[in-house]
Design brief:
The protein is mainly alpha-helical. It has helices at about 5-15, 55-60, 65-100, 115-135, and strands spanning about 20-25, 35-40, 45-50. Strand 2 (about 35-40) and strand 3 (about 45-50) form a beta hairpin. Helix 1 (about 5-15) crosses helix 3 (about 65-100) and helix 3 packs antiparallel against helix 4. It is rod-shaped, with a radius of gyration of 24 Å.
């Protein structure tokens, strides 16, 4: 199983997307501090606690840390982009495999009609997969 296969398996088994996040002042693990809640349309997926319990944060009651917001946003962005990123990886594999093949020469150093048609069809398939993944279609 390749890493792409493993990621596709995990994506299939995970909570369906798209995911989103929102901040709640009392959403942290202790219910006193803020946190970013990551959720799908079906359920809460994870909570990114602010975990900023320094003296100034307690005095100001402002527990929003830029790191927690960025972590939450990164998680949802990667999850929502995963299908397209995996399609690009698969298409990249096809292009790489195709690039390893030279056009088939015949005995005279020219392409045979059958070999050339097969090579051209494989090239078209690889490029079509790449374009489709790149455009997110």
């Amino acid at each position: 199983m390749t890493w792409i296969d493993e990621l596709e398996r995990l994506l299939t088994e995970a909570t369906p997307g798209p995911w989103r996040h929102e901040f709640s002042d009392r959403g942290g693990y202790d219910a006193l501090t803020g946190a970013w809640t990551i959720s799908s349309t079906e359920r809460t997926v994870a909570v990114v606690d602010q975990a900023d319990y320094d003296k100034e944060a307690w005095e100001d009651r402002d527990f929003r840390s830029p790191e927690a917001a960025s972590t939450s946003e990164l998680i949802i962005s990667l999850r929502n982009a995963a299908p397209r990123l995996l399609a690009l990886a698969r298409a990249g594999e096809l292009l790489f495999d195709f690039a390893q093949k030279a056009p088939p020469p015949d005995d005279l150093g020219m392409y045979t009609q059958l070999g050339r048609r097969k090579w051209t069809a494989e090239r078209a398939e690889a490029w079509a997969a790449w374009k489709e993944a790149l455009n997110g279609e």
